[in-house]
Amino acid sequence: MERLDGGSAVPAALRGGIVALGNFDGFHEGHQAVVGRAIARARAEGRPALVATFDPHPVRFFKPDLPPFRLTTLDQRERLFAAAGADAMLVFRFDAELASVTAEEFVTDRLLTRIGAAGVATGEDFTFGKGRGGNVSVLKALGARHGLSVDAVAPVMGDGEPVSSSVIRAALQAGDCDTATALLTRPFAIEGVVEHGDKRGRTLGYPTANLSLGKYLRPRFGIYAVRGRLPDGRVLDGAASLGIRPTFEPAKELLEPHFFDFDGDLYGQTIEVELISFLRAEQKFDGLDALKTQMNSDCSEARKRLA
Fold first, then answer.
1. CATH fold of 2-158
2. Which CATH number describes the domain made up of 188-306?
3. Which end of the chain has less Cβ packing within 10 Å, N or C?
4. Riboflavin kinase domain location, by residue (predicted)?
């Protein structure tokens, strides 16, 4: 699996491919349908299969003051695309230059000249080009003019509405891990480098691996049953605090998983933590004894839900 710069010429071996075109943040069921269509066509025609994404998210470029909303990092997307069968991930850097490219220029310069695409697959609601001047109808017309085949994939429906990243974000912000997991087809996961903390968890008998929330969407703050995935492939069950730790000062947004029956040094390692089930909201305790009693209860409940 190669990661390519969408602004540069694609290597010869990957030209003539079918490109799945979208942002694919979350890579949920609807995104998987688009990428699956591109890969199926590529395999049937003996062509490379490429997945294009944008970084930063176009919304972040136009509205830089929005709260964090990402569901995946580029590294996570790359692994997901590879698992789906793609040969390469194309990353379009969304900046002022790309924002100024017209719909026709995007097709002729980016897709045809630089990437050498033979065809694209995208969702029916895809928009592109300066001022969002391009949609699927425009894309098909330009494709017909320039010899680029276009497949438009209908939305995947869930509970009477299209599966979307917005629905998944709303579920996570409500603490509804079950809905988010169903639509993503996997648990929502936060990946990061384990940081040194204040060691309070170790003092309480519950050492934690502290992760910054970075650019990820903030799910509902509280306590979760989680699974951690370590660089060596081990999968660990645990309970985690996600939020600002209201019992302690100063307030700081962190994901702090405690992994059951694990005694090791994770500092500096990149781990991924899956949110499996929301246990309770954040709470401020009068003292450490009360907090420790609640932590005992939280871990017991987390074990039951993960069993």
1. Rossmann fold (3.40.50)
2. 2.40.30.30
3. C
4. 183-307
